[in-house]
Each structure stands twice: as C-alpha cells, then as structure tokens.
Amino acid sequence: MFKILFVIILLNSVAYADKNMKIGSKGKKNEVTRIIKVIMYDNYYEPNFFQIKSGETIKFEVENAGMLVHEFNIANKMMHMKHQPEMQKMVENEILLADSIDKEKMKKMAKMDKAMGHSHSNSVLLEPKQKGEIIWKFDNAVNIEVACNVPGHYQVGMIAKVDIN
Ligand SMILES: [Cu+2]
Fold first, then answer.
1. How far is the CA of 45 from the centre of ligand 1 (A)?
2. For the residues of 2-29, what is the DSSP string, one character each?
C-alpha cells in the first residue's frame, strides 16, 4: 500500500517537472525578431526585466562588465535549483574560479562528467570582459527566469524577470 502511494507521488513529481520544463527552445538565426543587449555586473543584469511576446525569437547579446564570472541562463526556478549544485561542483573542481574559467580543466573533467563542460543551449557563462549570445525562441514558455547560477549569485538576486504574453 505504501509502496503504491510512493510510486504515485513519484509519478506526480515527474509530471510536475515536465510541466515546468516549458522554457521554449533554441532559436534559429534567420528567425530572430529582436536583439536585446544585456550587460552583466556584480551581481545583477542590466536590464533586469524582459517583456517578450509569446513565440518571439530573441537574440540576447550578453556582455560581462563585472569583475566576476557570470552566467546568463534562460530557465525556470526549478531548473536553476538543479543547475546550482553542478556549478558548485565546478567551483570545487577549480574549473570555475571567481574571475575566470579554467577551460583546459573544463575539457578534461567534462570527459568524466558531462555537467562539468557547462554546455547548455540556454546558457552562456562568461568571464569578465567576455561577450556571448543566445538565440532563444519563446514558444511554450512559462515561468521563465533569467539567472546566474555561479554559487551565491542567485541568492543575492542575480535574476532577471521575464514577462511573456
Ligand atoms: Cu553571477
């Protein structure tokens, strides 16, 4: 009886996770409808709010003007929570340093643990003075948060709100 109950709870949480994975998808270059420039500082985004129309494909041109490494990650809160231990592990393995990324170590460690490669279509991780971009299609996207999951940054509010309508 308890076993069955446990399975039901487990299935429910899986369904819940799926529902929360609606974050849109990687966009195509030729479908970009708008370019938004974003500057990352220690520890906030400028702008820190995005108004987006459902279905729009946005190219985010992201620049890190801070002194620390920062991430621009398009996801939802649950995904950020899941990603943060991976970023913590990157710090523990000395891949992710406060103001730089050890790319050599990253490559090596990624062979053993894919998460250490930090290769995600919905995220860019930038060293100070670096620039990057993400093309993102906001279709079927709900409860989106842009956030930085470098340890401690989410907690001090390095989050940008996204309103999709
Ligand atoms: Cu950050």
1. 9
2. HHHHHHHHHHHHHHHHHHTT-EEEEPPG
Q: What is the pTM of this model?
A: 0.87
Domain count, the chain: 1
Q: Which two tokens stand for residue 94?
A: 């000395």
Tell me the backbone φ, ψ of residue 123, rounded to 5 degrees: -145, 145
Is pLDDT above 90 for 71? yes
Q: What is the mean pLDDT of the chain?
A: 91
118 CA to centre of ligand 1 in angstroms: 15
116: domain CATH number is: 2.60.40.420
What residues make up the domain containing 32? 2-164
Identity at 105, one-letter amino acid code: K
Where does residue 6 fall: left (phi above 0), alpha (psi -120 to 50 degrees), or beta otherwise? alpha
The rounded Å distance from CA 13 to ligand 1 centre is 29
By CB atoms closer than 10 A (0-12, 13-18, 19+), residue 32 is middle
* 107 beta partners: none
